[in-house]
Amino acid sequence: MFQLQFAPALAETPALLRGFWLTIELTVAAILLGGALGLAAAMARNMGPRFVRWLVSAYVELIRNTPFLVQLYIVFFGLPSVGVRVSAIQASIIAMTINLGAYAAEIFRAGIESIHRSQIEAGASLALTRPQILVHVILAPAVSKVWPSLVSQFILIMLTSSVCSFVSVEELSGAAATIQSATFRSFEVYIIVGAVYLGFAILLKSALASVGERLFRRPGTAPRKAKLAAEPGGLR
Amino acid sequence: MIRPFGSDEILFLFEAARWTSVLSLAALALGGLFGLAVALARVSVSNVLRTAASGYITVVQGIPVLILLFLAYYGLSTMGFDLPPLIAASLSLGIYASGYLGDIWRGAIESVALQQWEASASLALTRGQQYRYVIIPQSVRIALPPTVGFLVQLIKNTSIVSIVGVVELTRAGQLVNNATFEPFPVFLSVAAIYFIICYPLSLIARRLEAQFNAYRAG
Amino acid sequence: MPIVLVEDLRKSFGSLEVLKGISLSVERGQVVALLGRSGSGKSTLLRCLNGLETISSGRIEIGGHVMSYAPAALRALRKDVGIVFQSFNLFPHLSAAENVMLAPRVVKKTPKREARELAMEMLGKVGLIDKADVYPDQLSGGQQQRVAIARSLAMQPRVMLFDEVTSALDPELTGEVLNVMERLAAEGMTMLLVTHEMEFARRVATTTVFMYKGLVHETGSSKELFGRPSTSEFRQFLGVTSD
């Protein structure tokens, strides 16, 4: 018979909290940088010259059809081999940014394309340039439309950060690996860590949802329920 | 001893890719089975079943696949089952897949119009018969594109089981890299093989989606 | 000197020729009603005048600009030629005042405070000062269309185009939009409008142009044209629509 013993694992709470904090930092960095990269890529794809458009779609397809772990290895092992020194944490942030950027670019593109032609015509008839139309007319409604999909993607990149433990980053999963090898209570450690991820995922989701409501709220308007479903998937 | 990265190594990678495929198919089979159960429970008339299924989806979608893998791996061994890594890996990937497929298929089932339920009920079909002859056939068309899309995610996620010692494509890449110290060519080759597997599936998913949209619009 | 001059304008969509050689001249301060059945090409003509459609051949001069599709030239033209659409096309994420301020701020680089003052002045013209900070989805169709008119006016155009601006409105909301247009006409704005409001065309338009199968079929002062339609097609058109 087996018995669950949480005490040895819980004794390592400070280490777990340090790991959790690093998970939060990685996630926030990836969301900010990857979100910006995705937006830039989507805009470049929308109004750049043909060559740039081709480049962006190649980037999107290459990233979306290869595992994050391999992308991380290419950054972490590949860059030093050509003389670029990166720490494990830097490599993780770079890989997460590039990964999220590709998915976010697709989501932003869908949002931009969902804006009706007549809106673009109205902008054009007011003598706005194409970039001005994109920024002032299309962007805000487009982002508010795809915000739920973006939130799902942000949650996925948070979950994906666990893979960074493969290159010895001591985020939550990395901390768990260290603790389980010291306490031999592997199952208990991963139950605790799993619960922390789950709690954080739920928290992050509702926090981002209310960020969206605040960003796109119009005074006197009931918050609308966007219907665009998130692309299903797991860790990308 | 350092070896050059040559055709033998490439061949080794392709052989390992077979295990990636085996893992993916096993996880798809398991995940499909569990997922269908989750989807049906999620739309069942029983409150308890619905809540349980919805909780299951939330939990699986809120925990990294890596942690699911460890939970299966260490959980089973704590309980005294010493399963080979390949089985534990398939099982955990199957659970992961069931959480997402269950959600996708629930959406597909729910998108079939209420009138279809009413019409089939009025023909005196049992609930099982309604699913079998009316609802599921219509849901499949809706569910197919996102299911194929999810298969791509599943294949990519098999990469993490390298950590429990299954020599699939990514683990093979690591081994080759340790022997050759040529990370760029090695991992770019690994990425290329994943791409060769995943990209056609992505294209199929997109085409199915376009067909479905055209069908709906027409 | 005419402020709008159209010479032998032709426009095809694929193999379908919609405008078959339109010539038209409008003087400053004229209000021109473009009438005709659906498919007669009147909306296409209006969209050509703002460069929203490229013409196949012919020549357009409007608001002091010769139509050219180079982006900078087109923008210069559009600063002087406003258009109001059937479907309002307000920007949903901007309040009424922000909708009006957008082009002055972005295109003309007007400072925010000045742009806001301008917006209030324009909203005043359409009777919607109290709705300045309301978002489009909280406005009635008629109010939205009046904001759209204010938005166009804020660029201080020399010519205004109205493309079936009341067609999407309930009858009780049509009047408030037509009133705004009538006031604009009285202020001397040069206007071209595609409309189905016969009574409005007869009363407010100085000139009526009846289009038929992609050509100007009959034109003249509204009084004359409505009083003594000379072609059977226009007579039939009036008979059908005034019922």
TrEMBL record, chain A:
It is found in: Cell inner membrane; Cell membrane. Its main location: membrane. One of its GO terms (biological process) is amino acid transport. PROSITE patterns: ABC_TM1. One of its GO terms (molecular function) is transmembrane transporter activity. Residues 20-208 form the ABC transmembrane type-1 domain. PANTHER family: ABC TRANSPORTER PERMEASE PROTEIN, MEMBRANE COMPONENT OF AMINO ACID ABC TRANSPORTER. This is Amino acid ABC transporter permease. It comes from Limobrevibacterium gyesilva.
TrEMBL record, chain B:
It is a multi-pass membrane protein. Gene3D superfamilies: MetI-like. One of its GO terms (cellular component) is ATP-binding cassette (ABC) transporter complex. Pfam families: BPD_transp_1. The keyword Transmembrane helix applies. Keywords: Cell membrane, Membrane, Transmembrane, Transmembrane helix, Transport. One of its GO terms (molecular function) is transmembrane transporter activity. Residues 17-205 form the ABC transmembrane type-1 domain. Its main location: membrane. One of its GO terms (biological process) is amino acid transport. The keyword Membrane applies. The chain crosses the membrane at residues 20-41, 53-76, 184-205. InterPro entries: AA_ABC_transptr_permease_3TM, ArtM/GltK/GlnP/TcyL/YhdX-like, MetI-like, MetI-like_sf. It is found in: Cell inner membrane; Cell membrane. CDD domains: TM_PBP2 (cd06261). Belongs to the binding-protein-dependent transport system permease family. HisMQ subfamily. This is Amino acid ABC transporter permease.
From TrEMBL, chain C:
It holds the Pfam family ABC_tran. Residues 4-238 form the ABC transporter domain. Gene3D superfamilies: P-loop containing nucleotide triphosphate hydrolases. The keyword NADP does not apply. InterPro entries: AAA+_ATPase (IPR003593), ABC_ATPase_HisP-typ (IPR030679), ABC_transporter-like_ATP-bd (IPR003439), ABC_transporter-like_CS (IPR017871), MetN_ABC_transporter-like (IPR050086), P-loop_NTPase (IPR027417). One of its GO terms (molecular function) is ATP binding. The keyword Transport applies. It comes from the Bacteria. It is a peripheral membrane protein. It is found in: Cell membrane. Keywords: Amino-acid transport, ATP-binding, Cell membrane, Membrane, Nucleotide-binding, Transport. GO terms for cellular component: plasma membrane. Belongs to the ABC transporter superfamily. This is Amino acid ABC transporter ATP-binding protein. It comes from Limobrevibacterium gyesilva.
